[in-house]
Amino acid sequence: MKTFTERLPLGNLEIGLIITTMDEERRQFKVERMTGEKAPVVLTRSGKKSWLVDNPGKWDIPESALKKLGRMIDVRFEKIAHMQVLLVLTDFSETAANAARYAAGLTHQLHVSRLVLYHSYEFNPIALNVTGLATESVIDTAGKSHAELETLKEQLQTVVSKQTLIETYADELAIAPGVKNMTENGAAGLVVVGITGKSNLKQLLIGSHTLDLAKTCHAPLLIVPGNARFEKIRRIAFACDLKLSPAAIPVAAIKTILHDLNAQLVILNIGRDRHYFDQDKIAGQSALNDQWNGEKPEYHYITHKDVADGIMRFADRQDIQLVITIPQKYGFFESLFHRSVTKKLAFHTHIPLLLLNEAL
């Protein structure tokens, strides 16, 4: 279950509410003024932007106001689905600042309403297996974190779209659970993080956290390489495995991204040798084709001994500005921490990499 908060206008007042999704389809919601209420309000989505009050609870709130709350919930999730809220992670390194600048450029093309700069000032060298590397300079304080966030916010004010509000947030949670908490509470439709291939302490911290997020983040995760610069996204490559079940591909999420960016889809099937493209696998491709419903994607079939290198060389040749993958489900994306394609892509590409969770 996912829990978030909303403030419902009621006359001259606003009441704070705790809302919990009761099913995976986000159709039914429990509404409380405090957790553990014996008779909470229960709202059910009965159709597109249409709501029923299954249980009015024990508050003196008119049904019309509760239905208005349902419409507010719709707006919240609609903004998330269309990536109108960006959560940008920063450790105040140049790599993270570059990712923030990239996200600021993206606000113009995605019509982003909010860009949230997030920093975790928790540092645990034991959990990261870097005992002995923790120094006073890398141990943050809450005050220092907020000051650095405000400085970064000022730098981005002139870069973001005029309709984008920049917010800052810092807490003591480790990065992975911190991001999980914010995305599950509906605070982000897209998570943006930087990564570098340099072998130093910053790579250890940023790289470890980024690849951990690739395993745990349910929101789309955009990995921005240290040398990437924002340019309008016109062509998107979806690196697809012929062995992947069509049901495991988040087609709706990819279509939403395509439409919001007004971009062309290029579907890339890549194998390590020619035997990868046998007749049975190519025949099975028709099931995948049927899912795109008029998107008119380009289809490419290539072989390369190094899949990650093959994807990025293809992206260079085909003028691709963004590569999409589904790391958990690909046969050639075995493990994020064992020389996998995803890890090599994240560290060596100069093109941003968007990781989508199968459940999107």
Structure description:
The protein is α/β, with parallel strands linked by helices. It folds into three domains: 3-73, no CATH class; 85-225, Rossmann fold; 235-355, HUPs (Rossmann fold). It is 33% helix and 26% strand. It has helices spanning 63-81, 94-110, 142-157, 175-184, 201-216, 251-261, 279-289, 307-317, 341-348; strands at residues 3-10, 13-21, 28-32, 41-47, 50-55, 85-89, 114-120, 165-171, 190-195, 221-225, 235-240, 264-271, 298-303, 322-325, 353-355. A ten-stranded mixed beta sheet has the order 8-7-6-9-10-15-14-11-12-13, with helices on both faces. A five-stranded antiparallel beta sheet has the order 1-2-3-4-5, with helices on one face. Helix 6 links the parallel strand 11 (235-240) and strand 12 (264-271). Helix 8 (307-317) crosses helix 9. The longest helix has 19 residues, at 63-81. Mean pLDDT is 77; it is low at 123-139, 197-206 and 329-339.
Domain tally:
3
Q: Give me the strand/helix succession.
A: EEEEEHEHEHEHEHEEHEHEHEHE
CATH structural class of the largest domain: Alpha Beta
Strand order of the largest sheet: 8-7-6-9-10-15-14-11-12-13
Low-pLDDT stretches? 123-139, 197-206, 329-339
Number of helices: 9
Mean pLDDT: 77
Morphology: globular
Tally of strands: 15
Span of the ends, CA to CA: 15 Å
Mind telling me the C-alpha Rg?
22 Å
- What share of residues is helical? 25-40%
**CATH-level-4 superfamily name of the largest domain:** HUPs
How much of the sequence lies in strands comes to 25-35%
